[in-house]
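So, can you check this record?

>
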Amino acid sequence: MEDIDATDARILSVLQRQGRISNADLAEAVNLSASACHRRVQRLEQAGYIRDYVALLDPRKLGRATVVFVEITLSGQADEVLDAFEREVSRIPDVLECHLMAGKADYLLKVVAADAEDFARIHRKKLARLPGIAQIHSSFALRKVRQTTALPV
């Protein structure tokens, strides 16, 4: 994969914060002509630096303000155990993120729920039924201190 230059980095930085910015406004923000800016954005998309464009939704407006981080330890580390767990956890829409970890837990999940009662339902009906589970430890987020989707470029 080719390296990006300072102009590409500025384009990526702006697009991460303003994904719906017009090409003309983006070109002005990074001091390029509109056609040169458009070519660079297309090249960044084709090279895989820009993976997708999305709308970030407000979880409170959607009744999903409770965030719970769930540490899961599996009964074993065999490929078939990991594969079965990953396949099934990917089907749970309440799980926003699932990371295979090094350390005490095998997986760390970020789960959204309406409230503690809703999380109890998700835990009982979905998480506890995942294959290969040995232990589940849940921690409720009390307050969001910082959240961003923007990577440093």
